[in-house]
Q: What sequence folds into this?
């Protein structure tokens, strides 16, 4: 009996000690939680404000000249002088080279001589017409007078004389008509020789090869003394003089995804980043194909980028920020202010007494730095923008306003 009593007493003491320890531990946790909930945490905050938002797609492309051609000779000849080389900047109409074509000069002299002869023939035909007209005038007056006398005093003149006068009058009129035809033929011959001379002169002018537009010589194919075939000949291997590239205005070919095609408009401004130069340029949507390629589901769009100082070199790589969604005066917050909880987005607003209010929000336009708020927040609200995962509903905080980047580049 004594042994049983001792066992029961020992068990009672052990349970008492165990319950006492557990109670003490729970009491410590309650006090710790109370201390934690009462601690004021410093939180970075930003104001909900209205901003202009723009969402963009970033597409890589390489620059190419606005136009680029091989400059050929219009007439065949030897290069007498060449004034440009690779890298030369030229203006429209500037002489690039001069060809030696002696036979054209001889042909021009020959045509000029023929033109002078035809001019003399025109002058001779004009004199012949004047003489014929004078003869016709005399013959007609003679016939008219005899005819008048015949009517008033028929006994004074014979009918034969009147008939002879009439015949001479008609012959003179025929000579006038012939002289007029001769003058017209001489004039046509003169016009023909004039046109021929102009043709030969034009060919001679083509011996000076000029730049069709402002640009840069990117390749030179011929040197002094080289024989150039006419660019209009049937020779497929006709040697060009130089390659000319218009680099003052460059093109970018941008494949726009199908879902963004309705947002492409002529004249739209885009941002063009050239990493190799560390600079950003402004481009303009100048033209688009108006068709979606079946293989890529994109529409090719061309962006023109002015390059007046020739800073950009064709072939350089660029990233085009193409705006596909824009909104002015949108209610926006920094992206750091929004947290995701499953399928919903929430913001941590600093409410009354600086306590956290966790509010669901509806989002609109999203850029790389800003989010549009459609509902859930009001203009002027302060929202936490850092360490939101550690904040709890009703927790008291010490708000610290911070400046974050505003709406800018697209996403």
A:
């Amino acid at each position: 009996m004594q042994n049983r009593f001792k066992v029961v007493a020992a068990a009672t003491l052990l349970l008492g000690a165990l319950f006492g320890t557990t109670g003490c531990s729970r009491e410590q946790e309650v006090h710790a939680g109370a201390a934690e909930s009462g601690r004021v945490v410093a939180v970075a905050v930003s104001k909900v404000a209205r901003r202009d938002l723009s969402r963009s797609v970033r597409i890589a492309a390489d620059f190419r000249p606005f136009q680029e051609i091989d400059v050929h000779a219009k007439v065949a000849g030897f290069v007498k002088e060449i004034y440009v080389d690779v890298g030369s900047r030229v203006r429209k109409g500037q002489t690039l080279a001069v060809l030696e074509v002696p036979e054209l000069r001889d042909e021009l002299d020959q045509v000029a001589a023929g033109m002078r002869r035809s001019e003399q023939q025109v002058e001779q035909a004009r004199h012949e017409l004047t003489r014929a007209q004078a003869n016709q005038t005399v013959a007609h007056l003679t016939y008219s007078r005899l005819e008048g006398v015949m009517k008033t005093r028929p006994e004074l003149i014979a009918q034969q004389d009147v008939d002879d006068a009439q015949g001479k009058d008609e012959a003179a009129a025929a000579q006038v008509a012939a002289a007029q035809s001769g003058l017209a033929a001489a004039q046509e011959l003169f016009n023909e020789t004039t046109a021929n001379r102009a043709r030969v002169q034009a060919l001679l002018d083509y011996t000076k090869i000029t730049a069709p537009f402002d640009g840069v010589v990117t390749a030179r194919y011929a040197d002094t003394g080289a024989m150039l075939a006419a660019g209009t000949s049937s020779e497929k291997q006709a040697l060009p003089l130089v390659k000319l590239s218009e680099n003052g205005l460059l093109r970018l070919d941008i494949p726009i995804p199908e879902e963004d095609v309705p947002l492409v408009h002529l004249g739209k401004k885009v941002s063009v980043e050239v990493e190799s130069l560390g600079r950003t340029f402004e481009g303009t949507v100048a033209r688009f194909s108006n068709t979606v390629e079946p293989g890529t589901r994109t529409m090719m769009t061309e962006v023109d980028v002015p390059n007046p100082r020739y800073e950009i070199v064709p072939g350089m790589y660029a990233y085009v920020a193409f705006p596909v969604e824009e909104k002015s005066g949108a209610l926006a917050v920094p992206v750091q202010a929004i947290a995701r909880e499953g399928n919903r987005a929430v913001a941590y607003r600093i409410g009354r007494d600086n306590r956290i209010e966790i509010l669901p929000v509806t989002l609109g336009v999203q850029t790389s730095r800003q989010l549009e708020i459609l509902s859930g927040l009001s203009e002027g609200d302060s929202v936490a923008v850092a360490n939101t995962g550690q904040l709890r509903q009703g927790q008291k905080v010490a708000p610290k306003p911070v400046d974050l980047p505003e709406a800018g580049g697209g996403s």
Observations:
- The longest helix spans residues 102-152.
